[in-house]
């Protein structure tokens, strides 16, 4: 679906991928730059979020820094069971993201848990509930460069 | 490293910040602390790496980046870390990880995510990665996403009591 974004919206989306300042009025600098009020900035963010242009606005937490763990997992879900399995998998709050992909392994999700041990427990629970194997691909090393999307 | 107040802040903000001109004051009031303490705690959690960033997550699909390909590669173990750094530095690679193989089904140990406006564009970028990996790479595949099934980010389970 295409969406008609105003120039202001585009500037906002690009700016909001940077870190918000930790000050009493964190939108003030941005509002100044864009020559609109702070209220206008937050109203537009709300609209972009409600319209699904932004999936989220807020702090991004690193569960590993909290002593927890992430694990990429994959399942080969029979087509006729896809929706049923999806409902079961997504019901876990530990499932942070889930994507359907065009491969025999057609469901790929990321578990985020508060402890390293909880990954195995969550995987076992999903396997028990769905009767399907869950392959685990924990990251061994991250080669990461910050990514941003230009609106 | 974190105390119950930090945890309450995480629980209160993991779905998003209040969209008001002074969001930290509003949050502080709901948690019964001062705005200054709220800001100090957020700064500390950022310094500790618990908060990676405060900002927006755009929906790639809605911004026209409708093709999302997870490229996967079976790279010689002796070369994978050096090559992984190079692949991760490519401007169109959004995430790049070394992960364990799951033999015999899954021979791939390097994962690089590529976004683009079309599958053709992503395939062309995939060829650039293949060229960079060269003979150290035995095989590869690409898995395009066909649907976002969930995208909430991390959520703490609420503790009982």
Automatic annotation (TrEMBL), chain A:
Its UniProt pathway annotation is:
Porphyrin-containing compound metabolism
Q: Which UniProt keywords apply?
A: Lyase
SUPFAM superfamilies found in the cross-reference section: Winged helix' DNA-binding domain (SSF46785)
The keyword Lyase belongs to this UniProt entry's keyword annotation: yes
The UniProt entry, under InterPro entries, shows:
AsnC_trans_reg2 (IPR040523), HTH-Siroheme_Decarb (IPR050684), NirdL-like_HTH (IPR053953), Tscrpt_reg_AsnC-like (IPR019888), WH-like_DNA-bd_sf (IPR036388), WH_DNA-bd_sf (IPR036390)
According to its UniProt record, the EC number is: 4.1.1.111
Please name the Pfam families in this protein's record. Answer: AsnC_trans_reg2, NirdL-like_HTH
Whether Phosphoprotein counts among this entry's keywords is no
Span of domain Siroheme decarboxylase NirL-like HTH: 9-54
Q: Known catalysed reaction(s)?
A: siroheme + 2 H(+) = 12,18-didecarboxysiroheme + 2 CO2
Tell me which residues make up the Siroheme decarboxylase AsnC-like ligand binding domain.
Answer: 71-143
> What's the family?
Belongs to the Ahb/Nir family.
Q: What is this protein called?
A: siroheme decarboxylase
Organism expressing this protein natively: Roseibium salinum
UniProtKB/TrEMBL annotation, chain B:
Q: Where is the Siroheme decarboxylase AsnC-like ligand binding domain?
A: 62-150
Offer one Pfam family short name for this entry: NirdL-like_HTH
Q: Name its pathway.
A: Porphyrin-containing compound metabolism
Protein's name in the database: siroheme decarboxylase
What domain of life does the native source organism fall in? Bacteria
Q: Which family does it belong to?
A: Belongs to the Ahb/Nir family.
Query: Siroheme decarboxylase NirL-like HTH domain: from which residue to which, for each copy?
Result: 6-52
Q: Which reaction does it catalyse?
A: siroheme + 2 H(+) = 12,18-didecarboxysiroheme + 2 CO2
Top enzyme class, one word, equals lyase
Q: Does the keyword Lyase apply?
A: yes
Query: Could you say which residues form the signal peptide?
Result: none
Has the keyword Lyase been applied to this entry? yes
């Amino acid at each position: 679906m295409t969406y008609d974004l105003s120039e202001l919206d585009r500037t906002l989306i690009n700016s909001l991928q940077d870190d918000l300042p930790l000050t009493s009025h964190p939108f003030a600098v941005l509002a100044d730059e864009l020559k609109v009020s702070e209220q206008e900035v937050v109203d537009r963010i709300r609209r972009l979020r409600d319209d699904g242009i932004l999936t989220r606005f807020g702090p991004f937490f690193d569960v590993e820094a909290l002593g927890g763990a992430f694990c990429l997992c994959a399942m080969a879900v029979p087509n006729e069971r896809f929706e049923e399995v999806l409902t079961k998998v997504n019901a876990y709050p530990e499932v942070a993201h889930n994507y359907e992909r065009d491969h025999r392994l057609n469901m790929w999700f990321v578990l985020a848990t508060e402890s390293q041990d909880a990954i195995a427990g969550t995987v076992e629970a999903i396997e028990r509930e769905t009767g399907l194997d869950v392959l685990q691909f924990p990251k061994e090393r991250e080669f990461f460069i910050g990514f941003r999307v230009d609106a | 490293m974190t105390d119950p107040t930090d945890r309450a802040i995480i629980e209160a903000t993991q779905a998003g910040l209040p969209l008001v001109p002074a969001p930290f004051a509003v949050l502080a009031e709901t948690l019964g602390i001062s705005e200054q303490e709220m800001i100090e705690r957020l700064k500390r959690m950022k310094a500790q790496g618990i908060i990676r960033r405060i900002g927006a997550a755009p929906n790639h699909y809605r911004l026209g980046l409708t093709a999302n390909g997870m490229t996967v590669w079976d790279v010689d173990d002796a070369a994978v870390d050096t090559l992984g750094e190079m692949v991760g530095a490519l401007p169109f690679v959004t995430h790049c990880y070394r992960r364990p193989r799951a033999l015999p089904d899954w021979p791939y140990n390097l994962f690089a995510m590529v976004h683009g406006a079309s599958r053709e564009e992503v395939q062309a970028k995939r060829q650039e990665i293949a060229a960079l990996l060269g003979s150290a790479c035995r095989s590869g595949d690409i898995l395009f996403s066909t649907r976002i099934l969930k995208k909430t980010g991390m959520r703490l389970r609420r503790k009982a009591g």
